[in-house]
Design goal:
By secondary structure, the protein is mainly α. The chain is built from 20 helices and two strands.
Length: 437
Amino acid sequence: PEPRGVNFTRYLGLLRFGQWVKSLRVAQAFEAVLGRLAVAKSPQQGVEFFRRVRLAADDPQREPVYENFRANLADICHVARASGAKVVLSTVAVNLRDFPPLASLHRARLAPADLAAWESAWGRGTNAEAGGQFRAALTNYLEALRVDDHFAELHFRLARCAIEAGQTDVARRHFELARDWDALQFRGDRRLNQILREEARSGHDASLLLVDAEGAFADPANSDQGIPGVRLFRDHVHPTFDGDHLLARLFLPAVAQALNLGSPPAPSGPRGLPVLSREECAKALAFSEWDEISVTAAMLRLTAKPPFLDQLDHSARQSEAEQALDLRGQTFQREAGLPRAENVYLAATTRRPGDWQLHFNFGSLLADFGDQEGAAAEFANAIRHMPVFPQLYMLRGQALWDLGRHKEAVQEFELASRLDPDYSPAREALAQATGRR
């Protein structure tokens, strides 16, 4: 919802018209001119912003979102299939077990007496849960649920206690309800996945295929007790490497079928291509110990900001994760992790010398550990295979600057700026290099 002004969400035709206007060259030029004249004053997405935009699952303002999603999805599939392309749809899997709701709201027009009764049962439940009395907590949470079943955190706490009490089916149901009643809809919910499934069923032929990622992630063979959590997700939606590998295995048969390669039987892929194991994929992609540490660090920087700050036990979980990451980084350096990571990259770039992303990641690894000479060389290799990516010139320029090769660095910054005149890091680097502000 818009914090102020007119909310155009319910007017799909106007939204599409606006996108069409933005695609016109005259509109793009006008927007670029305005961008140079003034900085737009958009609302800052701090804690208070996310507290203002909460919506319950039964709020009528959510309905246009679902209907727009349905209409857009149907049109995308129609256009793609009319062109002769085949379409692979996928349901959306999310973290249920280890991601508390971002926001919770009570049932609308809850009477004061009912709210008091709810809070009494809630308080007894949280006290029992804190004391490890999970069955007593369950009893009190169920009592609160009978008064108001809209509060997302209540479902999450109830599910957490049900796990401890050995009631897996009850836990799974309430983890799903905690997702659906989350008043900040950052995760794909039951209705969105239902729309995806309905669109897939409407195809009536092999040109529209469905990958049920939600179902596969909930398979006990893939997640603990059939409830997706930290094993497969880094936060609410971003998969771990294991989650990515599972997605790749799910999509492979559908893509092979769409390309008329047949459905690949395990362990071979289409036309005899191997289905790589998790370890083989990590080796081919040069996903080293340091990459795992770097990705985890990036995710922790994300979860240290809104809208995650209001989550249940956020401070404790964030602190624990940061301490674990720090320990892992110390272990990596103490146990000579860098040479192992370098060997992983050297082997991968030898096998696929034309893969610019391998060179980019290798250069980033070397830069992280102060080998600017090696980093500059790897970024140059990446540029050779991907010459239109301004960030690569910027990174190589930074490495050269740190080596004291300032003239060469400025040339790289200029190339980056020439590729993308709006790329602010290059403009700022040039301003600093030439002493202008």
